[in-house]
Amino acid sequence: MKVLVVGSGGREHALCWAIAKSTKLGKLYCAPGNAGIADVAECIDIGGEDVDALVGFAKDNAIDLVVVGPEAPLVLGLVDKLEAAGIRAFGPSAAASVLEGSKGFMKDMCAKAGVPTAAYGRFTDPEKAKQFIQDHGAPIVVKTDGLAAGKGVIICQNVEAAMTAVDDIMGDKKVFGIAGNEIVIEEFLQGEECSFFALVDGERALPLAAAQDHKAAFDGDKGPNTGGMGAYSPTPIATPEICDKIMETAITPLIKTMAAEGCPYKGVLFCGLMVRDGVPTVLEYNIRFGDPECQVLMMRWKSDVLEALDAAAQGRLDDITLDWHDETAMVVVMAAQGYPGAYEKGTEIKNIDAANSVEKAYVFHAGTKADGDRVLATGGRVLGVTGRGASVIEAQTTTYKAVDAIDWPNGFCRRDIGWRAVERERTKV
Fold first, then answer.
1. Which residues, in sequence order, are CB contacts of 230 under 8 Å at separation 6+?
2. Around Cβ 410, how many Cβ atoms within 10 Å?
3. CATH fold label, 192-428
4. Residue 172: Cβ-neighbour burial (10 angstroms; 0-12, 13-18, 19+)
5. Which residue ranges make up each domain of the chain?
6. Residue 270 Rama label (left phi>0; alpha psi -120 to 50; beta)
7. Architecture of the domain spanning 125-181
8. Cβ contacts of residue 3 below 8 Å, gap of 6+?
9. Which CATH number fits domain 2-91: 1.10.3720.10, 3.40.50.20, 3.50.30.30, 3.40.190.150?
């Protein structure tokens, strides 16, 4: 098979790395890719949102399957245009992608499907939004309706902070641009977060695995939210019983409802949940693999990844059985100093090979580019250093051993990824 992966982040490096191991693969391309992806795929200089150029490349090169990594090309209708050209694609249609493209649509779809989620209101008028906040009090959560690169969710501990969030999003500042033309305000849910992933073929869903990510920039869950500073899988909070409940209450009803509404869902479904007292409640759905969660899923996924993604694209998940490494995987994100604020680009990263030589570790690239033999940082989140181990503590030890092998004075990372699970393991001993 000829396969094209779309995207340039750590998620796409993990997908390419996993797909490259498939016995069904003939040739692997990635557009646009990055310095690490170039080790496992041929990188093509086409932007992830240049839909027409991507379709043209797929046609000209007789691509059998296109795997779309990020959400933006999906919302722009890349899958629709590929399928119209007779090319199979892994990912939802533009109509189904509104599930992530609009938080208001997502909340309304949950209501139709009977999916347990936080009470909410949708607003295009800031004054009505503020009245809702006054009526409900705090803590409360203010979200942009549209895509905001994973940063459009503001947890407000008091009414004043919530009012400021509304002004920042909908007032003159418009800090998230048109994504904030409408906002969703919802109750704050207590509990422990987890991410759950399932493959979907339009009618059926096949559970993958649960993970827990770390959004805050700094140790102790301090600092501003980011796209994700680390993750691990499996997570102790998602017991087999909880995973069954998630499938029964959050995945299957949604898939059936979307099919009934005329926008069947295909691809990977990422469900963000809050778990409290053994009860999972949906926070959000995303239409793609999480980043950095994808890195830990791919480290644990033992069976043929390409075969499973292609089966989802063809509507035949019934044919697929998945096999997983019975170990914990962890990823620690190395980011540029200053992230998620302003940061310097073009700094050199050394000794990635030394990190890759650590047993059961692998470095996934995100914001990198090659400059001759050198690797330069080009983004905020730059590397996803990933490791496996028999326990969370072992996975953490392996991962930080690989982190410490890397020479990048301009980078930083959290040193406490997996802390909740580590504490649980230590109290068991």
1. 213, 214, 292, 330, 331, 332, 333, 413, 414, 417, 418
2. 18
3. D-amino Acid Aminotransferase; Chain A, domain 1 (3.30.470)
4. exposed
5. 2-91, 125-181, 192-428
6. beta
7. 2-Layer Sandwich (3.30)
8. 19, 25, 27, 28, 29, 63, 64, 65, 66, 67, 306
9. 3.40.50.20
User: Digits of tens for pLDDT over the chain (429 positions)?
Assistant: 999 999 999 999 999 999 999 999 999 999 999 999 999 999 999 999 999 999 999 999 999 999 999 999 999 999 999 999 999 999 999 999 999 999 999 999 999 999 999 999 999 999 999 999 999 999 999 999 998 877 789 999 999 999 999 999 999 999 999 999 999 999 999 999 999 999 999 999 999 999 999 999 999 999 988 989 999 999 999 999 999 999 999 999 999 999 999 999 999 999 999 999 999 999 999 999 999 999 999 999 999 999 999 999 999 999 999 999 999 999 999 999 999 999 999 999 999 999 999 999 999 999 999 999 999 999 999 999 999 999 999 999 999 999 999 999 999 999 999 999 999 889 876
**Measuring CA to CA, which residue among 130, 136, 169, 127 is closest to residue 152?**
169
CA 109 – CA 114 distance, rounded (Å)? 8
